[in-house]
Amino acid sequence: MEIEVRRYKDINLRDGVVLDGFPSAGLVSSISASYLIAALNLDQVAVLDSPHFPPISLIFDGKPKFPARIHASEKPKLAVFSAEFTPNPMLDRALGKKILSWSKDHYCRMIVTVVGRPVEETALSTGAHDVMAVGSTERARRLIEGAGLEQMKLGMVTGIPGTLLNEGRWENYDVVALVVKAREHIADASAAVKALFALCKLVPDISIDITPLAQEAEKIEARLRVMRKEVAAVQQPVGSDIYR
Known about the structure:
By secondary structure, this protein is α/β, with parallel strands linked by helices. Helix content is 34%, strand content 25%. The protein has helices at residues 28-39, 92-105, 138-146, 159-170, 189-202, 213-235; strands at residues 4-7, 17-21, 43-49, 58-60, 63-65, 68-74, 77-83, 110-118, 131-135, 150-151, 175-182.
C-alpha cells in the first residue's frame, strides 16, 4: 500500500519517543494524542497521505490540514502520529511499517502505541489491570517492569499496534503497546487519562499535567465525534468498503 510522508520541516528527534495515536476502541489513542499535542504545544512537522485515505481537509483556525499528521518537538523529544479517521485494516501493516521506518530514520529510541481494549462497563475499574503493557524486545520489557506497569502475559494485539510489535521484534527495535480497557462505543476520556499516566511513568521525559484532561475531555470528545461523523459521510459513497 502506498503511504507517503510529506515533510514540512526538519527536526532533531535523536533518542526521542514516537507515539502512535491512530484511533482505537474508545478513541483512547486519539484523545491521548490530541491532549499531548495541545499540552506540549507540539508543532506539525509532516503529514501522511495515501490514495486510500479519505479525501477530506480538516480546518483548524482557518487553515486546512491533512487527516493524518505528525506533530513533534525537540524538548521533549517526542513525535505523535494522529488521525481523525480509522484506516481500513488492509492499511494497518503498511502504516505500522511506515511509522517504524520513520522512527528509525529519525533515530528515535522507542515507539509507544496506545491500544483501546473494548470491554463492558462492569469490567472497568480503577485497578492496575486496567492498563497492561507489551514490549517487543527484552529491553522494552525491562523498561515496562522498571516503570511498575503490569505486563500482558497472554492475549492479542491487532491492527497497527500489532504490526508495530511484530516488526519491532523482528528488527530488534523497542516498541511498547499500552493496552487500556475502554468503552467501545463512546469517546472514553477516563481510559485516556490512564493511558497518559502509564505513558508518563514509562517515559519520564514527558512531563504533563493530566488533571485538566477531565475538563478538556468533553471538548476533545465532541470534536472527535463530529469529525469522525463527517469523515464517515465522505467514506461511504465511494462504492467500496476500503475505508470501513
